[in-house]
Design brief:
The complex is a heterodimer.
Chain A (H helix, E strand, L loop, with lengths): L1 E5 L1 H11 L4 E3 L7 H13 L5 E3 L4 H13 L4 E5 L1 H6 L1 H9 L5 E6 L13 H4 L7 E4 L3 H18 L3 E6 L8 E5 L2 H7 L17 E2 L8 E2 L5 E2 L2 H30 L7 E4 L6 E5 L3 H14 L4 E6 L1 E3 L3 H8 L4 E6 L9 H10 L8 E6 L9 H14 L9 E2 L16
Parallel strand pairs in A: 2-3, 2-4, 4-5, 5-7, 6-7, 13-14, 13-16, 16-17, 17-18
Antiparallel strand pairs in A: 1-8, 6-15, 10-11, 12-14
Helix pairs in contact in A: 1-2, 1-7, 3-5, 7-9, 8-9, 10-13
Chain B lengths: L23 H12 L4 E5 L3 H6 L11 E3 L5 H14 L7 E7 H6 L2 H10 L4 E6 L34 H6 L5 E6 L3 H12 L5 E6 L3 H4 L6 H10 L6 E4 L2 E4 L1 H8 L7 H5 L10 H24 L2
Parallel strand pairs in B: 1-2, 1-3, 3-4, 4-6, 5-6
Antiparallel strand pairs in B: 5-7, 7-8
Helix pairs in contact in B: 1-7, 3-5
The chains are: A alpha/beta, B alpha/beta.
């Protein structure tokens, strides 16, 4: 193990190298581009013996990964925002084809209008596509989670998205402990035989038209219909609720580092106010919680590491009996609320009277700065709002008034 | 050139496929898979060929076949090639992308152009039945001038894209134009492509009884007539060297007159609404193109 001071993007690329990926395909988009620039350099120098395909679009980037994964290769790609949106068709294809692809997302705001800075709208928009989605809070977690993602993906035959906040993590350097290649190999053995068979001696038609109902094959054996396949896929995501913590424990056994599996927490045990978020925001929430505790508010952090599958049982167990859960979403389901807030309410509903009140906040869209002070203030407002109606609308943090004339010469 | 009776007997296209009666794809696919001796993996997007291949869990083609998203065919073939290379299996099989005219020239052209610019190692075969036939005969960029489709009721007003020329402009090592109704021409071109590397593009005209509106028994006759008229031209460009092949070479070498386009137009319901003026425009377009091909044939490039 060596310690390197590297960006989040470098951490992702380093993990791909340690995973001994065999095929890489990617298309440039800010803030993801440095990931593939670094990998391209390593492939060119021979440091990483892999095929690097310089595709002409994100749609083709994920397509190359899909096809190479179908023949058994371990593959890697990364993208952001509109790049992810452009490959959306293939995001669904990768999952439906049950391919263990790992893709890093340097989270960025969706256009229009153009904005290259961070929020989580991009990956949240494909939460229903059948991928595992893991969110990272710092660069060490990006490296460790990307390695873990291959183990999870290959055990379950589902693709995994490793999401980390653009610029806040992707372009920020931090000390990161890099496992040795021997440690990585011990944790992550080569990929075993794929589900799919591509062999002229045993010709198969992979992914053909599949009817809704089961249908017999040439030997008279009933094979699943489309609906059975979808149920099996859902089952694999539910199995991930077990596999993600298991893999985290396996990783800890090799490297000494664990990340909590599905969720992560700070000062939550005795808290009566939980603050909930995914990604780097949870690090800032630890500072907010410390400030609140100094004022006598018993606050604690619950970080969502696995957003898909959503850790329903874990959040229910950890939040039962709390007074309030304040959710900070960096994304929005327009016309409703933030996605984590909505999912959390649904997860807690069966607790009845034991369930905390859930209030949502929208923050950090398009890279709007959000400080620990802002988070603490929003939590105070939420505590105060407990005396009001329980269907409080989302609190937009730092939303500014518009149409106010600015002084001459103001750079804004 | 391989003689008809010398074509291999091996058949990788099984009886009982789901193609329409008289579909030209079956004639072509038999020779394509035979020329590769079944040692191929196909990348197939949404198209008539998807239907041809059958529904899970059965298959009508005894060659590995990977279904892929509509715009993604060439990128999928690039991924299969990269994956096989990474797994040390590149010598086991040829990667064969096979898509229709819309899947190639419209929605798939970006991925195809990217793969051609990178000169990835696979054969791309476009079977051109001149419209979106699988979805019910909608106009594509390769639908001929004058043809009625369900989105050009009065007849298409534009000439088709010249895809082989677009591919030639990428500087790839092999570009060929063939027709499904000439089995030996298809066989020879796929066999030649098989023995080469990097990106090889083959364009295969494929008559479609239901979309073009003719009797299923006439598929071969209509396909041959297209060549007699110079609407479809059989040729290949090997590392920049151009030559006409088969019947097209015979027409040029013997300096024979082309059959008038009007005779071809009269055989198909899709041209029913064509005016004499439109037919004359198409004739002029065909004549101009033919003169160009004959000149290139003579020059050898």
């Amino acid at each position: 193990m060596t310690t390197s001071v590297i960006t989040g993007n470098d951490a992702a690329a380093t993990a791909a190298k340690l995973a001994r990926v065999q095929v890489i395909a990617a298309y440039p988009i800010t803030p993801q581009s440095p990931v593939v620039e670094v990998l391209s350099d390593w492939v060119a120098s021979g440091e990483l013996p892999a095929e690097f395909v310089n595709v002409e679009s994100e749609h083709s980037a994920l397509t190359v990964c899909i096809a190479a994964s179908t023949v058994g290769a371990r593959v890697f790609t990364a993208t952001s925002a509109n790049g992810l949106a452009y490959m959306t068709e293939q995001v669904w294809w990768a999952a439906g084809a049950r391919l263990p692809i790992v893709m890093c997302i340097a989270n960025r705001a969706m256009a229009a209008p153009w904005n290259v800075l961070n929020d989580q709208q991009d990956s949240m928009s494909v939460r229903d596509a059948g991928w595992v989605q893991l969110y990272c809070r710092d660069n060490q977690e990006i490296l460790d989670t990307t390695l873990q993602a291959y183990r999870i993906a290959e055990r379950l035959n589902v693709p995994v998205m490793v999401c980390y906040d653009g610029f806040l993590l992707s372009h920020t350097v931090m000390p990161v402990d890099v496992p040795t290649p021997e440690q990585a190999d011990l944790f992550l053995p080569p990929r075993t035989d794929p589900l799919q068979v591509v062999d002229p001696a045993d010709p198969r038609n992979i992914g053909p038209v599949t009817l809704a109902d089961p249908r017999a094959d040439g030997a008279g054996v009933l094979r699943p219909g489309y609906m059975e396949l979808r149920s099996l896929h859902h089952g694999a995501l539910l199995d991930a609720l077990e596999v993600i913590p298991e893999v985290d424990a396996e990783y800890a056994a090799v490297t000494g580092r664990a990340w909590g599996g599905l969720t992560w927490e700070y000062l939550l045990d005795d808290a009566d106010v939980a603050v909930v978020a995914a990604g780097s925001l949870t690090t800032q929430l630890t500072l907010a919680v410390e400030a609140l505790r100094a004022e006598g508010v018993r606050a604690g952090v619950l970080g969502i590491r696995s957003y898909r599958p959503f850790p329903v049982a874990a959040v229910r167990e950890r939040l039962a009996g709390k007074r309030l859960a304040v959710v900070f979403d960096k994304a929005l389901s327009y016309g409703v609320e933030g996605p984590i807030a909505g999912d959390l309410k649904a997860a807690l509903q069966p607790l009845g009277g034991e369930a905390p009140v859930v209030f949502g906040c929208i923050c950090g869209l398009g890279g709007r700065d959000v400080s620990p002070d802002d988070l603490a203030a929003a939590t105070r407002r939420a505590v105060a709002d407990l005396s009001g109606p329980r269907d409080r609308a989302p609190d937009w943090i730092n939303l500014q008034p518009q149409g106010i004339p600015q002084p001459q010469g103001d750079p804004r | 050139m391989t003689k008809l009776l010398d074509l291999p007997q091996a058949n990788y296209v099984l009886p009982g496929n789901r193609a329409c009666a008289g579909c030209g794809i079956g004639i072509g696919l038999r020779q394509i898979t035979a020329a590769l001796d079944g040692k191929a993996v196909m990348a197939v997007p949404a198209s008539c060929l998807t239907v041809f291949g059958g529904m899970y869990p059965t298959s009508s083609v005894a060659v590995p076949w990977v279904n892929v998203a509509f715009p993604s065919t060439a990128a999928a073939a690039a991924g299969l090639a990269a994956g096989l290379r990474a797994m040390g299996r590149a010598d086991e099989m040829t990667v064969l992308a096979m898509a229709g005219d819309g899947g190639t020239g419209d929605i798939g052209i970006q991925a195809l152009s990217g793969a051609a610019e990178r000169n990835d190692d696979f054969i791309y075969l476009c079977y051109d039945n001149e419209a979106y036939m699988n979805t019910g005969t909608q106009r594509s960029g390769l639908t001929p001038h004058g043809a009625r489709t369900t989105t050009t009721w009065a007849g298409k007003r534009e000439n088709p894209k010249d895809l082989p020329r677009i591919m030639e402009a990428h500087g790839i090592p092999y570009v060929a134009s063939t027709s499904a109704v000439y089995p030996t021409d298809v066989y020879d071109k796929v066999a030649r492509a098989r023995d080469m590397h990097r990106l090889r593009y083959i364009h295969m005209n494929t008559p479609c009884p239901s979309g073009w509106t003719f009797e299923p028994k006439d598929t071969v006759r209509i396909g041959e007539l297209a060549v007699e008229c110079g609407i479809v031209v059989l040729y290949e460009v090997v590392e920049g060297a151009f030559r006409l092949t088969g019947r097209s070479a015979a027409l040029a070498n013997r300096n024979k007159a082309l059959t008038p386009v009007a005779e071809y137009v009269a055989t198909q319901g899709r041209f029913r609404a064509m005016t004499e003026e439109t037919t004359a425009e198409v004739q002029a377009w065909v004549d101009g193109r033919w003169a160009g091909y004959v000149a290139r044939h003579a020059a050898g490039r």
